[in-house]
Specification:
Layout lengths: L9 E4 L7 H16 L5 E4 L6 H9 L2 E4 L12 E4 L6 H9 L3 E4 L3 H15 L3 E5 L5 H7 L6 E4 L2 H6 L6 E5 L5 H14 L4 E2 L5 H16 L2 E5 L5 H12 L4 E4 L14 E6 L5 H13 L2
Parallel strand pairs: 1-12, 2-3, 2-4, 4-5, 6-7, 6-8, 8-9, 10-11, 10-12
């Protein structure tokens, strides 16, 4: 390895990185609502996005996250933003009964998955959702599968799954294609009449492909984003799998000394990461050169 603080370092940004369309739309809606609604705070169901720094910025603007146990009379007459992940129908109905003013920021691609789940359920099909069991998008889609559903996160879980009847498979929009494909191969072998929905957001694959190109052109990778962000964690896992020294940081303050030893450092970021944090990390890398 080169000596620490390599004066020849080149910092290169991935061609595709940072906030996706759904996240930008959700943040813009929340900000606009907070600016126009005199009855602040404006509430969101859980953190609007999986980035602690962005959530703190929203709180400073009067946008406050509610936990699942906080859906009560406090929302009456208040604006409640449904985040990009969406919500189950029963939760939406509960908010309406309490008199909340709903601002729907559900990502259009997630809405498409919800409609697919509802359509299959109306025909009596079971719905298998491939993704992270506790992710808001997954629990939201499950709420539309009234005829029965299951969540699968790995080929091993798919092997152990016990269901009867025709099944439809829907992916969390932010998982990797390879994950989805490997699980669907198991399900197709174990169940007859499986229908697979193409539900992964193209932006997810665009980030993965851009990361692969970035890794081929650099010596080390810095992934910027919240540790509670599933897609950011997947980018970090991919960077490691590509054989590059890699670090997952939320802010520039977390950059390790080791990264400054490399000649070419690539920077990418998850779908919830603000541009300001990406720029901050880039600036920190350059300033230490």
């Amino acid at each position: 390895m080169a000596s620490l603080y390599n004066p020849e370092m080149i910092v290169k940004r991935a061609e595709v990185l940072g906030r996706c369309m759904g996240v930008r739309r959700a943040v813009d809606l929340a900000m606009a609502t907070a600016d126009s609604d005199a009855s602040r705070p404006v509430y969101t169901l859980g953190p609007l996005i999986h980035n602690p720094q962005a959530v703190a910025e929203l709180e400073a603007r009067g946008v406050v996250a509610l936990g699942s146990d906080d859906i009560d009379e406090r929302v009456r007459g208040k604006s409640v933003v449904i985040r990009a992940h969406g919500v189950p129908p029963l939760l939406r109905s509960r908010l309406e009964e309490l008199g909340a003013r709903l601002v729907d920021a559900t990502c259009p691609r997630v809405i498409a998955s919800q409609r697919k789940a509802r359509g299959y359920a109306s025909r009596g099909w079971k719905v298998i959702i491939v993704g992270d069991r506790d992710h808001g998008e997954v629990t939201g889609i499950a709420g539309f599968a009234s005829s029965g559903w299951a969540v699968v996160g790995s080929p091993a879980e798919a092997e152990a799954l016990e269901l009867e009847g025709p099944v439809a498979v829907i992916a969390q929009t932010t998982i990797k294609n390879e994950e989805y494909r490997s699980i669907c191969e198991v399900l197709a072998r174990r169940f007859s009449g499986v229908e697979v929905v193409d539900s992964i957001c193209p932006a997810t694959e665009d980030r993965q492909r851009a990361l692969a190109r970035l890794a081929a052109e650099t010596d080390a990778i810095v992934v910027v984003g919240g540790r509670n962000s599933a897609n950011t964690s997947r980018l970090y896992t991919t960077a490691m799998a590509l054989g590059k020294p890699s670090w997952h940081v939320e802010t520039a303050a977390e950059l390790p000394d080791e990264v400054f030893a490399y000649e070419r450092v690539g920077v990418t970021a998850g779908a919830s990461t603000p541009e300001s944090l990406v720029a901050e990390v880039e600036a920190a890398l350059v300033s230490r050169v």
